[in-house]
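Researcher: Re-running this chain for the archive, since the previous output was lost when a drive failed. Same request as before.
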Amino acid sequence: MHIVKVLRKIWKPLSVVVILYVVCVSGFIYYSGVSLFNGIYWGVITMSTVGYGDIVPTNPPAKVFAMVLAGSTIGVIGYVVSTISTLAIEAREEELLGLDGTKISGHVVVLGWNPVARSALEELILTGKNVAVMTRQQDKLTEIRTFVAQLIRSASTNPDLKGRVTTEKGIYLGLGDYSQRRSLELLNLPKAIEAIVASDDDARNLMTALLLKNLAPHLRVVVSAAHEELRETLHAAGVTYVVSPMDLGGRMVSAAAAQPEVAEAINDLTSAGFGSDLNEYPLGNGNPLTGLMFEEAHTRLRQATGALLVGVARPRKGDRDGRPFEVILDPPTDTRLDEGCYALILVSMHVEDRLHSWIKVPPGRPPKGPE
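Model: Regenerated structure tokens:
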């Protein structure tokens, strides 16, 4: 609960208490002729309803004043306590709904809640990413909160994932219409690195993507689009990557029917919860593979870490179709791993620490700073 926010709301009822106390002290001093100290003392004892009786009004005006004060005090104190309780409950509800926003940084924003967003959130948590999730449906917050808690609890029992999973402190859940600027501002976009837009409404996805690029031009934005014909429009809006879950699902179903083991291997490679991952590592200063030919790089990597070099991603000419990199799997052995490209490496969990220690650069695209 944010105490400062509560205090901002209750300053008016608290000021009534202060004014009443000043009147209490001043009136008793005036009508009873007591000292300032005794007036202050009598005011505290009277307004707290303790009433020791060691200092009492002794003349009719003072007694009338004391009676009026006693009645007023009971009403005012009751009102203040009730107001504070109500505001505290409201503040707690706002916190549960995420209406206070978040201050996490280096995070991935996930907008929408459907099977695509659920799978994305699972992968992000299992790879240790900070995540800010926003949904437009209040009843979904409980579902997401339960899903996150169960996933983290389950992952904590997996020795291969121990210490790598995102903690609940690194996850923000919020309620809001993410196609509106006011809601997106709750997500600390200047400190975010990526955004995944995954609602079931392509029109809303397009509006959200446009707003994201306006509010945070540095963000890498990935959109889940049901209609393939929107791909070009989304790329023109500045979206980094457009994925069609229906197309991907169809390919997986086809692979599972004809070559089930291939489908299982793809599922393994695209899920952080299984044995192996396919990651991309930037080639540049610090990466020992930079400048090597593919065959030599493959040999060195295998000998030093046990991981496999399976391909390279290099810049396209002209950033065609919104995809700035060309992916080449199993390229010719004399392909040079130039700076600015990415090495595609297949790594098993049991050699992941050794790989990260040797290659000295984290996987994935380096985050951009706010423009």
